[in-house]
Records
---
Amino acid sequence: MFPVNCYLLYDNTGEAVIIDPGCYFPEEKEFIRDYIQSKGLTVKHMLCTHLHLDHVFGCQFIKDTFGVGIEANPADEFWLEQAPQQARTFGLHIQDMNLKIDKHILDGDIIKFGNLELEAICVPGHSPGSLAFYCKEKKLLFSGDILFQGSIGRADLQGGNFEELKENICNRLFVLPEDVTVYPGHGPSTTIEYEKKNNPFFI
């Protein structure tokens, strides 16, 4: 129902971060756990680009399994408070729905793991606290539901703003190098160059 891209990043030190643990079904959780254990990785951070329901299904599982809490923008915390009710409307259940942000991430914060760094870029519009995570060294951007291949995030949910979203994408993301690869919260990857030239919301 909610196909979400969950990302696991790590380097040769074995330190790792998980971005947007949308795993809901047991087999999804088992796959992530088994992969991390088979590689001998140490999870240092659990990062959420935003806190819509589909991106937090697996947060409690990751916290219980690897001992890392939710790191996200506090502007989105109200979504966690609404998560139990939202899940029920879809006939779903989230184990231990008393989710909260364990560490606040603000614009410009640097998340370190191994020999790598991610810069948090605040891009509100899809949700008030939407973040993108940018790895300058590797030229990678994890855009959550802000920017997709050929599209942008919806802005009709609580706290969303369509014009703000478009403006922030132009001012915060399209200023990055054009050869940066963009990994969104849903769908295939793209590049900054491709979206600047081809995304119908900007041409």
---
Amino acid sequence: MTKIVISGTGIYTPKNHVSNEELIEAFNTYVREFNEKNRKKIENGEVEALLESSPDFIVKASGIKHRYFMDKKGVLDSKRMRPYYPDRGNDEPSIQCEMAVDAAKKALQKAGKKPEDVDLLIISCSAFQRAYPSMAIEVQKELGTGGFAYDMSVACSSSIFGIQNAYTSINSGLAKCALVISPEICAGHINFKDRQTHFIFGDACSAVVLENAETATSVKQFEILGMKLITQFSNNIRNNFGYLNPGEVRKDETEYLCIQKGRRVFKEVIPLTVKLIQDHLDDMKITSVKRFWLHQANKNMNDLILKYLLKREASEEEAPLILDKYGNTSSAGLVIAFDKYSDDFNKGEKGILCGFGAGYSAGCISIQRV
């Protein structure tokens, strides 16, 4: 079997930083305006009054303190409450392409590779801003990579499933060097008027270079030891946006945005993920793991997953969090955590990358510093 390594990672972080305080100020302004506009209906019991929120509520519920958006002006406008993306012509690079190219260039630089060394490019993320042509093929053109490119999506597990596809292609001889990129514009599917979910997501993009170990020259390399994937259908995290929407008749257009039943997700995803990781560790006969880079969705969820796995509380060194600064960036989050917290690994030390999310979908990859 071909020895395959992760030889470089890159991160694109939007310029627009948004704190909990800024988000709450906009949300509470919207709530007050809504309640005043519907005051008589609320008094008559026809409409339910909206509740204000607080920065402390967000931190307690999720661990999130900040996030980044491609646009913040529209999000923080209480009259709009959604991002504003200026229209781009068909001959201009798309927003996701712009993010992907930036992250990819950083990953290639760390890997010591040129775009022409890449013969497989996968854009693997939660949602795409258009149906076709493929976002990956657009990025391939802008970067100047060779071979072939395609899009895929498995919600918040997309980066893990994308790495698995790249690994398989290299192992089979179909490709020699691959880029897996996850441009996540999560703000596009958030209902910023919903108290329970408006604070969860942020925008970012991650990129990962995988290649045959024989061609790898970078300073930091991690061999992929094995991986395990699982899917199980659930409606508890859902987004009904799609190309059939113009022909549909729906009473509630918020169904085109992210809908999440948080308590059910908590109850069902935690045991599924714990079992997935434990089964993989058992299959690989791995008894010592220096670090877990988990999907960056919710601090409380990650704490419980690791408590079940380790039979104790995990330290920050064992399970670093970046969601306090980035929010939930879907599939990009775990790669961001890996990019920022992997330089201290010594040769032979092992770690676990794990993504989980809507679908349900979950996947974990065991790696070892070369």
